[in-house]
């Protein structure tokens, strides 16, 4: 039965692939591109009660033309029937154009989750983003293994806050959209988080203000409120569900629980942003009632209410242009417009405050459409579709192809007989074959042993890096420099290659300025720069950071027992700096495992 089921699955996959492998799709430039790159893009915003939409035409990378979208409220149709009817009407209006993408902006359900300790580091973005799509419970704490495709989690790194969170959306429209993305309609679908998009738009506006005074953005949707503290970047993200009410039940508690650990009570701006149909004044009244019941020092807390008109004015001032009334129906759609749109194709891990708006514009365009292996198997890539189309033509002209094949084989045989190789003397051929065998043996020898002689630990480069870590200065005195080189322990019984660790240990004395310099070496970016400079200076690739290689600096400081405050030239601190460089077993400079004695 299991074998029969496998054959049935294989037949179904082949049938689906044949339906998608059409000549029209293969010749189209955008048939295999995502929804965001289609020439016609239908943006739909859904908050659980209302559905609003807008259409945009033109090159996604250039200026776009916006037009009002269909009105769902007046149709009385189900979501599935409404979408199908609108798609049919749009294609008829565009003279049968099939290149249409649907971008659904969801604000009906929003939930945040705590990630496991293993993925708390924001730099785990690439690995965690893949795992969370397939098995969310491996990344998000508290989830069961049985998570349906209608509940999608995505991983969001908060680099300025030094942490990461997971965000969830429930796809109630999944079945309706899957019907449209099938072979029949062949629509491209993208599902985005509307709160993340709103945050990206506001970050582009408020980022210039946050270095001087902290801000807390309260995104007030009809079913939830999102709190986002900003200070040189996004520090945290808290989702407060309304639980059927108009405001979060414990809004005051949640606000002050967020402000106090960050030290924002000393002075910050709380911006209440109306993102739904209700007036954010309800949030302000809830906060006032909380302060009256629990007296707090709110003297330095400024509360601003951002109504839709004021929000649009801010966006237009930032963009330096006016948006046509009634076309851009939601601020979330602005992530597609310059200057809010980021040109970055990959996530930036820079801690520069200016990189935060671009980073969140990239994150705001993350797709919540299912991306598990079962869904990916239903897709057909352009090369596979092209191959199947070619095979169809081959099948149609099989007889002609067979004749051409036989004729080609005969011609190749005849032309091969005319080459010098075919008329080569047997003794000369044997001599050439022996030379080839000798050359191959030499190549195998060099492949096996040539890597051993690659420079990895040379005395002058070791000393040079030591001087690079602690350059000559009146603020630091080095008493000793120790160097160690060892193999990385592995659990494998017979590994083919082994990683290694280089360790520099520097001990000495320093004053306050020297201490400040040495402590900065614990910053990974500073340490990467020093190793990169050593690599360029010495032309030694063993110092090249990045890839799987890791750098770590450990600094320990204590009072100098020989310090005398009456002597101006004395150093008050004694220090110990340990710098480790770890090179993994899959690195090009990995070694053959060291020989060990058998016990």
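^ Assign residues to that structure.
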């Amino acid at each position: 039965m299991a074998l029969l089921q496998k054959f049935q699955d294989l037949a179904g996959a082949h049938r689906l692939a044949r339906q998608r492998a059409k000549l029209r799709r293969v010749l189209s430039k955008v048939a295999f591109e995502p929804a965001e790159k289609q020439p016609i893009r239908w943006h739909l915003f859904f908050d659980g009660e209302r559905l609003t939409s807008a259409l945009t035409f033109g090159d996604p990378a250039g200026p776009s033309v916006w037009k009002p979208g269909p009105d769902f409220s007046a149709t009385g149709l189900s979501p599935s029937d409404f979408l199908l009817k609108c798609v049919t009407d749009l294609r008829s209006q565009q003279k049968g154009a099939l290149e249409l993408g649907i971008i659904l902006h969801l604000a009906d359900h929003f939930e945040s989750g705590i990630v496991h300790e293993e993925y708390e580091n924001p730099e785990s973005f690439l690995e965690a983003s893949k795992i969370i799509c397939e098995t969310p419970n491996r990344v998000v704490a508290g989830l069961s293994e049985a998570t349906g495709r209608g509940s999608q989690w995505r991983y969001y790194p908060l680099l300025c806050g030094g942490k990461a969170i997971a965000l969830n959306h429930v796809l109630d429209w999944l079945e309706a959209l899957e019907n449209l993305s099938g072979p029949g309609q062949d629509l491209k679908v993208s599902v985005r988080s509307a709160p993340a998009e709103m945050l990206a738009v506001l970050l582009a506006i408020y980022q210039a203000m946050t270095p001087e005074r902290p801000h807390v953005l309260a995104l007030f949707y009809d079913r939830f409120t999102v709190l986002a503290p900003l200070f040189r970047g996004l520090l945290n993200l808290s989702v407060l569900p309304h639980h059927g009410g108009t405001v979060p039940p414990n809004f005051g508690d949640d606000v002050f629980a967020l402000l106090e650990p960050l030290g924002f009570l000393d002075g910050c701006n709380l911006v209440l942003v109306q993102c739904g149909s209700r007036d954010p004044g309800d949030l302000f009244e809830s906060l006032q009632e909380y302060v009256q019941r629990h007296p707090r020092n709110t003297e330095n807390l400024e509360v601003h209410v951002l109504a839709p008109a004021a929000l649009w004015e801010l966006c237009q001032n930032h963009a330096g242009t006016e948006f046509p009334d009634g076309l851009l129906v939601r601020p979330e759609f602005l992530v597609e417009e310059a200057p809010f749109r980021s040109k970055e194709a990959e996530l930036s891990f820079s801690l520069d405050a200016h990189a935060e708006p671009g980073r969140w514009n990239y994150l705001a365009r993350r797709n919540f459409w299912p991306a598990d292996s079962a869904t990916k198997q239903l897709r057909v890539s352009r090369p596979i579709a092209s191959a199947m189309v070619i095979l169809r033509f081959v099948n149609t002209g099989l007889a002609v192809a067979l004749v051409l094949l036989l004729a080609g084989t005969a011609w190749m045989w005849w032309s091969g007989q005319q080459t010098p190789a075919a008329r080569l003397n047997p003794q000369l051929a044997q001599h050439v074959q022996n030379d080839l065998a000798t050359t191959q043996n030499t190549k195998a020898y060099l492949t096996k042993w040539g890597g051993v002689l690659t420079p990895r630990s040379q005395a002058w480069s070791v000393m040079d890096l030591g001087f690079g870590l602690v350059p000559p200065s009146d603020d630091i005195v080095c008493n000793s420099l120790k160097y160690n080189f060892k193999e990385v322990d592995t659990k494998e019984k017979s590994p083919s290659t082994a990683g290694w660790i280089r360790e520099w240990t520097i001990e000495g004395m320093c004053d306050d300025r020297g201490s400040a310099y040495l402590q900065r070496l614990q910053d990974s970016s500073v340490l990467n720069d020093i190793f990169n400079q050593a690599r360029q200076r010495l032309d030694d690739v063993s110092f090249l950071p990045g890839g799987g290689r890791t750098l770590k600096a450990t600094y320990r400081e204590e009072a100098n027992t020989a310090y005398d405050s009456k002597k101006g030239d004395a150093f008050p601190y004694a220090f110990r700096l340990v710098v480790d460089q770890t090179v993994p077993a899959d690195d090009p400079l990995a070694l053959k495992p060291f020989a060990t004695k058998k016990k």
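The mean pLDDT is 84.
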